[in-house]
């Protein structure tokens, strides 16, 4: 349980080759649905940043255990701890999303099952997305008493579709995102890890120094400052909490008629 980092290309001890550490897999595991607590977001940010700073690493794969990739923040923690948990979750999400975007090497997201809320922030900041056939993507924020990550959903679908998905809390399938060009490949669930690693190997075969320059160059020409845009959105989450509407919606979440 938690966040872990592994090097899947390593062979038996003593058999390592020069590329054995070129791929780092950062795996999230917070049962039952990968709804991350405050410290989980910070741990994820630290793991991604550490992997990107490792001079041996040329590609990071962001993966998750369990039936879904990510269910966003732990709402129960926010309900139990109140404003301190909300502020912590906002800061933690900001750091985790930024860590993925700013990772010094390309990040491949391997997405299975549900990818909701904070999950959209993660994959929207990744360089490439590989998804299982059962993957679904969405922002149920308006049903959870929150706002945010429209910045990142807008990187996955066209503007008007983003708005419709955001206002309705509906989800889009992996196949639909593949049709929009934001998902690289859709595969059966049991082939997801293999497909993500296959792409990561292709990326990691490039010159490591040049890859890092390429990542910096691509981020530098991005038309939207994702950090500033997401931070702007977060201000409205605080406002919703301050006026009480966030608590009202969260308290109704999961209840009949809520």
Structure description:
The chain is of the alpha/beta class and 258 residues long. It is built from eleven helices and nine strands. The chain has helices at residues 38-53, 75-81, 83-102, 118-125, 150-153, 159-168, 174-179, 192-204, 208-220, 226-242, 245-252, and strands at residues 2-6, 23-29, 59-64, 107-111, 114-116, 128-132, 136-138, 171-173, 185-187. The strands form two sheets. The chain has a six-stranded mixed beta sheet with strand order 1-2-3-4-6-9, with helices on both faces. Strands 5-7-8 form a three-stranded mixed beta sheet. Helix 1 (38-53) links the parallel strand 2 and strand 3 (59-64). Helix 1 runs parallel beside helix 3 and helix 3 (83-102) packs antiparallel against helix 10 (226-242). The chain is globular, with a radius of gyration of 18 Å. It starts with a strand and ends in a 6-residue tail after the last helix. The relative contact order is 0.14. Mean pLDDT is 92; it is low at 14-18.
């Amino acid at each position: 349980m938690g966040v872990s980092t592994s090097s899947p290309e390593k062979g038996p001890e003593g058999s390592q080759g020069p590329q054995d550490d070129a791929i780092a897999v950062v795996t999230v595991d917070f049962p039952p649905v990968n709804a991350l607590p405050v410290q989980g977001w910070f741990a994820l940010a630290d793991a991604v940043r550490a992997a990107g700073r490792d001079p041996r690493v040329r590609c990071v794969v962001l993966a998750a255990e369990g039936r879904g990739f990510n269910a966003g923040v732990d709402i129960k923690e926010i309900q139990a701890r109140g404003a301190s948990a909300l502020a912590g979750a906002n800061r933690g999400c900001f750091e985790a999303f930024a860590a993925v975007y700013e990772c010094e090497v390309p990040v491949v997201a391997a997405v299975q099952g549900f990818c909701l809320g904070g999950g959209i922030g993660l994959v929207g900041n990744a360089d490439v997305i590989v998804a299982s056939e059962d993957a679904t993507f969405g922002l149920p924020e308006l049903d959870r008493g929150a706002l945010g990550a429209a910045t990142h959903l807008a990187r996955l679908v066209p503007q008007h579709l983003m708005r419709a998905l955001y206002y309705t809390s509906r989800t889009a399938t992996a196949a639909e995102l593949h049709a929009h060009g934001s998902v690289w490949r859709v595969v059966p669930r049991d082939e997801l890890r293999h497909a993500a690693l296959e792409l990561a190997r292709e990326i990691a075969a490039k010159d490591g120094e040049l890859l890092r320059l390429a990542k910096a160059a691509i981020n530098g020409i991005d038309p939207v400052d994702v950090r500033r845009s997401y931070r702007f959105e977060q201000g409205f989450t605080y406002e919703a909490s301050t006026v009480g509407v966030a608590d009202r919606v969260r308290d109704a979440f999961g209840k009949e008629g809520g």
